[in-house]
Amino acid sequence: RTRVGRSFKLSYYNEYKSYLRMDDENANSDLLAYDPNIKNILEQEELKWVFVGGKGGVGKTSVSCSLAIQLAKTRRSVLLISTDPAHNISDSFEQQFSRTPTPVKGFTNLSAMEVDSKPPEEGMDQIFTDPTVESAGLLRNMMGNLIGNVPGVDEFISLTKIVKITETENFDVVVFDTAPTGHTLRLLSIPGSFQNILRQLIQMKSFVGGLVTTMSQSLGLDTNQMNLDQLEVMLPMLERLNNELRNPDMTTFMCVCIPEFLSLYETERLIQRLAELDIDTHNVIVNQVVYPDKDKEGNVSCGLCGARHKMQSKYLDQITDLYEDFNVTVMPLLPREVKGVAMLQRYGAMLKEPPNMTECSVHDLLKDE
After folding, report:
1. Within 172-302, where are the H helices?
2. CA dihedral (339, 341, 345, 348) positive or negative
3. Is 84 designated active site?
4. What does pTM read for this prediction?
5. How far is Cα 369 from Cα 366, in angstroms, rounded to an integer?
6. Predicted local distance difference test score (pLDDT) of residue 3
7. Nearest to residue 74, comparing CAs of 32, 96, 42?
8. What does the pLDDT read at residue 214?
9. Which of 23, 30, 84, 116 is an active site residue?
């Protein structure tokens, strides 16, 4: 997808608005006419990796679960993965999920799983061929303590597991319900950074292998259980994943926020960091927007709701200006929580076809419940 340009820091917001006004006469209106929904993602047939992320508490899980359901209507097989340490997809679907793909009740082509960062010594199973042998277990623990000090190794092990599961079970598209921003950005940077680490380890393999062999023999361990050549198998997988993450036809990041300063500011920093990582992002979901009830005369009947609506309107205007080259979907704050398959399906339908809140109230959206 051709980008119209990158977003600017919020500190330059006024300058950016002036720039847009000056350039309006020369702008190509077709490039700025982005639909306010998620149809572009649902229609992107080559899409393989979809990350849903943002600040904590903005509704990432509701969006990711609902998106997975919508994708299951058009794609052959969909996997929903929670990488948030505080998993919520089990609560959203009202079904318990584990560390392995589990079919979602009511669907034949949608599965879900919750990934926990594995202790480094468990990931050593990829280097030692037979972890059931006692001597290999001792060596695995020794190397686990050594490699466990490398920053990001837990995310690396989790990511390799996800890739293997995806390839083994042949899922068509994978949706990630991610942890809050900082953890997610580190996860996305893992393929590139560990790709370089593995290259260096492979170059040093003869030295490292000899060193470990000497240490193992001095400890009376069986060096036949080692398989350092596995590093050379993992490198092409990381290179392929790294290329896929940077391919806008195969990977996109959906940003979720609420119309408040802290959430908007973190979303902007997230988008800039994704640009630095060369990861595509062109959808922003603005969640929990308040539309106050009105009386027969058209006056707002709730003072608190009116105040929240006024405050949010200011940030909605900023979002409109900042992200003119994004598909921005505005979702209303609903009178009930988004929980259970039926509600997730309804919420997903709204993401696909956002309601016109000038013609109805939030209560009308759930009138047939």
Report:
1. 181-203, 205-219, 230-245, 261-276
2. positive
3. yes
4. 0.79
5. 5
6. 41
7. 42
8. 54
9. 84
